[in-house]
Specification:
mainly alpha; 2 helices
Length: about 70
């Protein structure tokens, strides 16, 4: 098995972060809208909020890793 080229994986990370941020935002907005229309209890809205926060925190951590790698 061959090792992946670090240049290729380094160029894919920013795109992945952008997709995760955009997807998380769309899913969060959709979840809030659908939850409001269906009258879901607040605990499910909180669950959607926590999932969105996890996605954004992951994106921030990976963005920091990309920034650190570019400075090295």
């Amino acid at each position: 098995m061959t090792k992946p080229d670090p240049q290729i994986s380094a160029s894919r990370k920013p795109r992945l972060v952008a997709l995760v941020i955009a997807g998380t935002m769309l899913l969060w907005l959709g979840g809030q809208r659908i939850g409001g229309e269906l009258g879901l209890p607040p605990k499910y809205t909180l669950l959607i909020d926590l999932a969105a926060m996890a996605g954004f925190i992951w994106a921030m951590v990976v963005t920091y890793q990309i920034w650190r790698a570019s400075r090295a």
